[in-house]
Amino acid sequence: MKDIIIIGGGPSGLTAAIYALRGGKSVLLFEGGSYGGQISQSHSVENYPGFEHISGMDFSANLHSQAQSYGCEFRSETVTGVTDGDIKKVVTDSGAYEARAVIFALGARARRSGLENEKELIGRGLSYCALCDGNFFRGRDVAVVGGGSTALHDAVYLSELCKKVYLIHRRDTFRAEEKLVQRVSAAENIELILDSVLLSAHGDPILKNITVKNKKDGNETSLAVNGLFLAIGQEPMTAGFADILPLDENGYVIAGEDCEVKDGIYVCGDCRKKAVRQLTTAVADGTVAATKALEFLQ
């Protein structure tokens, strides 16, 4: 039996592991995918204090290495359920484990667009990760959909690889920081398509073009693109845990800034209901959740 089991190996989960281990507790961390969460897919992290520039992959690798050096036990298993009680039981696709406290660091994934043929086009021109798949479209025309920091980062990164980048946003202003907006505006091969929404994507089986509709005048435009990158927000990875976690209408875990759900159950990172979801707030959550768990165990 472990003192603490952490579910999720993103920045919040790895930070929680580091703090819990430094507090003298035994920690088992489950991650069914790749360590580092969504930030590991970022080409460049430039807004984390202390780093003028670091790749998301390097940042994630450093966190993982640090947790490992303190003695964290890692298992590449997918958690399928958690049972509450004085001793918590965590069930995975490979077995069952016990702990005195559990920290949920489930993270979030890129939100799907709802295109009729979205599932069929994934890997055939449609992607949610510019860093992962951008090189496949070197020298070709692509489109990015979204207006936040992720979308603009994707557009800048792709502009260094691709011939042409269309940046499609449903509003006439961006939600990203001004410095990033300036970089997008300065790129000669990025064309802004504002006040517009993605209507459809066409190709059988490979993406060939997309249709975009202007919200103000109703005009529809067809764009010939080889790649379509969706960066339209996130959705929490909380499905399957509604029996133990209080969720809001969007699936985010309802917990305050103390990250406590109840005694022995804590939540941290992007899956928690909060106003700001950034790398800094994820690691802050991990710190708080681990500290509360240590208080409980003591």
Give an account of the 3D structure.
With 298 residues, the protein is an alpha/beta fold. Helices cover 24% and strands 28% of the residues. The protein has helices at 11-22, 56-69, 118-121, 130-133, 149-159, 178-186, 279-297; strands at residues 2-7, 27-30, 73-75, 79-83, 88-92, 96-104, 108-110, 126-127, 141-145, 164-168, 190-193, 196-202, 209-214, 220-224, 227-230, 234-236, 260-262, 265-267. Strands 1, 2, 3, 4, 5, 6, 17 and 18 form an 8-stranded mixed β-sheet that branches. Strand 4 (79-83) and strand 5 form a beta hairpin. The radius of gyration is 21 Å and the shape is elongated. The mean pLDDT is 96.
Q: Kindly state the mean pLDDT as a whole number?
A: 96
Shape: elongated
Distance between the termini: 16 Å
Task: Give the beta-strand count.
Answer: 18
- Along the chain, the helix and strand elements come as EHEHEEEEEHEHEHEHEEEEEEEEH
Describe the oligomeric state of these chains in a short phrase. Answer: single chain
Radius of gyration from CA coordinates: 21 Å
Helix content: 10-25%
Q: Please work out how many helical segments DSSP would assign.
A: 7
Largest sheet: 8 strands, mixed
- Beta content comes to 25-35%
Structural class, from secondary structure content? Answer: alpha/beta
User: Would you identify the regions where 5 or more consecutive residues have pLDDT less than 50?
Assistant: none
